[in-house]
Write a structure and sequence with these properties.
Layout: H1 3-17, E1 18-20, E2 26-28, H2 40-52, H3 61-76, E3 80-89, E4 95-105, E5 112-118, H4 141-160, E6 166-172, H5 192-199, E7 210-215, E8 224-226, H6 228-248, E9 254-258, H7 265-273, E10 277-281, H8 307-323
Parallel strand pairs: 5-6, 5-7, 7-10, 8-9
Antiparallel strand pairs: 1-2, 3-4, 4-6
Helix pairs in contact: 2-4, 2-8, 4-8, 5-7, 6-8
The structure holds N-[2-(1H-imidazol-4-yl)ethyl]acetamide and zinc ion (ZN).
């Protein structure tokens, strides 16, 4: 073989396998990870199923039935499920029979990411415009069910294609039993389930690289601002998630602006386990509560749940998870 011919073969081979820049440095092509497509119809169905049980207030039949439904779905998708049952006390010292539901995918993998949401619904519509409704429990379609619906669809996606990282999905109980507006001398009592788990994790020495909380993440026209504590505990994760939303085409939901600080389950997980956590939570800068007008009212029902928002949040999370190495 002539030298010239050998040279041509070499050039052709290099051309096919690698990219060559002008400086002549051979750069290997990095293969793009295929991101699964989040199915919003499926997430919507998981949300509607929870709401159909009725308000998931601890100590009620609807709560027990929905708890079994959520664990059953996680098992169906191949997770190792731990049901952490305990009695917790409300701000008013009522005993609640609670259950945190933990689904672990590939528990042997030490490289883990934690996803979480609360699955209980609020026992009082204390922000309802009609005072007669203040003592009635809410559907919690957006405040509870929607976020769990998104996480169940992510669980289903993991069952189809395993990401490189191990994932834990936790549905926390008793987030929404905080002191109501009408109880003027009372305060506190939020996030009881997450506080208990953070103090007694299902695995001794539980570790995850970071955690993502979804709360009120399913309503139509939802906007997600960069929540104050999320930026403080895990600014790099906020950045990663907001960039992922841009890349996937959902930048109109994920606003590059600071939101207020919100007392939520991510605070407990960070406080006791020091896992950097963020909260993806709907924020309304023009509302006195920071939340949507139907927050903690009887109008937090399926009419406000939007497949477009479910897709925006779910697809953004899949992008983040499947790009982790
Ligand atoms: C407070 O209202 C103090 N925190 C909001 C936590 C919450 C309630 N998320 C959903 N419902
Ligand atoms: Zn709530």
């Amino acid at each position: 073989m002539t030298n010239k011919l050998l040279f041509i073969i070499c050039v052709l081979l290099t051309g096919f396998s690698c990219k060559q820049n002008t400086a002549g440095i051979v750069k290997h092509e990095t293969k793009m990870t295929e991101i699964p497509s989040f199915n919003p119809d499926s997430a919507y169905q998981y949300t509607a199923c929870q709401v159909a049980f009725g308000p998931r207030v601890p100590n009620t039949e609807a709560h027990r039935q929905c708890g079994s439904y959520l664990s059953g779905e996680l098992k169906r998708f191949g997770a190792d499920v731990t049901e952490q049952e305990t009695v917790l006390h409300t701000y008013s010292n009522i005993a609640l029979f609670t259950k945190n539901i933990i689904g672990s995918f590939h528990p042997e993998n030490k490289n883990r990411i934690l996803l979480f949401a609360h699955w209980d619904s609020r026992p009082f519509a204390d922000h309802d415009p009609n005072p007669e409704n203040h003592h009635k429990p809410i559907d919690g379609a957006n405040d509870g069910a929607g976020a769990c619906g998104i996480l169940l669809e992510i669980a289903r996606q993991i069952s189809v294609k395993q990401p490189s990282v191990g994932i834990d999905i936790i549905f926390f109980d008793a987030e929404d039993w905080g002191a109501p507006e009408f109880d003027i001398n009372a305060n506190g009592g939020w996030c009881l389930g997450s506080k208990y788990w953070a103090q007694h994790p299902h695995i001794d020495g539980y570790k995850a690289r970071y955690g993502i909380l979804l709360d009120m993440a399913s309503a139509k026209d939802a906007l997600f601002y960069k929540e104050y504590y999320s930026n403080m505990y895990a600014g790099n994760i906020v950045k990663k998630v907001w960039e992922a939303a841009q890349i996937e085409g959902y930048g109109s939901f994920f606003i590059d602006r600071a939101g207020g600080g919100i007392q939520d389950d991510h605070i407990e997980v960070y406080k006791y386990l020091k896992i950097p956590c963020i909260d993806i939570i709907q924020f309304d800068p023009n509302s006195s509560t920071s939340f949507a007008p139907y927050w903690h009212t009887l109008d937090d029902n399926m009419d406000n749940v939007s497949k477009h928002t479910l897709k925006a949040v779910g697809q953004t999370l899949l992008y983040v998870l499947y790009n982790e190495k």
